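step 3/5: co-fold with adenosine monophosphate
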Amino acid sequence: MSPSDAIRNATPSCADDSDPGALAIDEARRRIAALAVPVAGGVRVALRSALGRVLDADVVSPRDVPNHTNSAVDGYALAGSDLPPSGTRELTVAGAALAGTPFAGRWQAGACVRIMTGAAMPAGTDTVVMQEHVDAAGEGRIRIDDRHRPGQNVRQAGEDIAAHSVVLPAGRRLTPADMGVMASLGLGEVTVHRPVRVAFFSTGDELRAVGDPLGPGDVYDSNRYTLFGMLERLGVEVLDLGVVRDSAAELARAFSRTSAMADVVITSGGVSVGEADHIGAVLGDRGRVEFRKLAMKPGRPFTFGRLGDALFFGLPGNPVAVMVTFYLLVQPTLGQLAGAGWQEPLTLRATSTGRIRKRPGRFECARGILDHAAAGGPTVAVTGSQGSGMLTSMSRADCFILLPESQGTVEAGETVTVAPFAAFV
Ligand code: AMP
Ligand code: MG
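step 4/5: write tokens
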């Protein structure tokens, strides 16, 4: 190492924003997760109101699904022992069974019953031959050949869900499929966790509400809208407290108010080291600061702590940093508080189409556009300029490019990890 290299490595320059006091994102996750205790108190809700809610207790099946052994196809029900081992065989059609209208007669060996999909299997039968595999053999008779096996085309009672089994475990966030499963069990209500209450406000003397005129140096409060949108999607109870000015006294008042009403308090802005950045000091005064800096870009100034019984997230002011830190740290915390556990985003590997400048020593989260249909596997391109104030870089993106601490600059053609924003929503 040359002397100049040694100096460069040892002395952070003004242009170098690496920070030995900043917490690695994995450590931040661990410390936040350790404090996120699921909210107590289950509530009964109607099935239609259960979507996206988190089960407070296991759902145990009161019955078999299907409830009765039934046909999987339209065809003819018969006894497997009546199937011809070779050649063909003719059978008398003794009647019909429809979904909802079981066969009313008595089945006898050597006979079959015309049966529709979902109809209960007549007593004595255990096999269904598809309509398409049957030939007519005169009035009330059919002919079958030897390509069938006993038990085919039948759905057994309880083969989907057995009575008394746990169908959906506590902690599960209910999906449309789960709602259907509960309906198939005849359950009209379910016990879920109460929603997590989240209060949030923006901080900054420069912030103006949408609709108000902008004075010199003012900006519109966009974080209020991105935060609202991200929270709303998670099914939490959202308490929007607007804007608080850059005043320690006003922040202290807002902190007392919000900690009493919410499980989580989220602010944006005022967490850096500028003259108007009071969040850390006020939190230290009124609550407890757990950490104040992340080894992450964007999102380095980030204050996490406790405010009474509430968890406190002081997000940076920069609009992109708000979204990145919310998705990577706040959203999983809200999942854990809701009772669903801490869930990391789904990731996949993709080839970077271009160079992504990056310095080792901190985690970086670039915004990308994924081409998952590209020949030769998924590719990803950054959404142009990545400044943390450029919200369009977020709005154009459909994924994050997650660049770990140890990673240096990514060259075109190298593989990176991406977290897509959405699959089926
Ligand atoms: P701060 O973290 O308070 O120093 O803010 C960093 C940058 O983000 C500044 O340019 C602020 O004007 C901007 N900013 C802070 N809060 C908001 C907000 N709610 N909406 C839009 N921009 C914001
Ligand atoms: Mg500010």
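step 5/5: annotate
The pocket of adenosine monophosphate (ligand 1) is lined by residues 202, 204, 206-207, 219, 221-224, 268-272, 274, 316-319 (CB under 6 Å).
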